[in-house]
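Hi R.,

Here's the chain you asked about this morning:
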Amino acid sequence: MTSVYGLINSIDHRCNIESMVYDITTFCMTHDCEIMDLLQNATKNIFSITDKINKIAEVLVDGIPSLDSDHTATHAFTFMEDLGVNIGKLTRFFLGFDPSQF
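And the predicted structure, written out as tokens:
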């Protein structure tokens, strides 16, 4: 039970989900995030989006690390990092965000 509490505590204190949602909201306030624009971005990046969806599915199929293993923290971190990176890239493709412009 302690490892579950430690994982939840780590996510709560180290995960910046609020600032990420704020950044996406700010981006959408200053750029077009209408449905047609999102669909155009998706069409332009269809192969990259398919790749990221496959990688997300692969991470999820591998499953959440067992809490009984010796390397629980390392496996959980790797699992969440892979999931987060791929979801972030997927979001970037849909929004048409180009970090080189900022």
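The chain has one domain: 2-101.

Let me know if you need anything else.
M.
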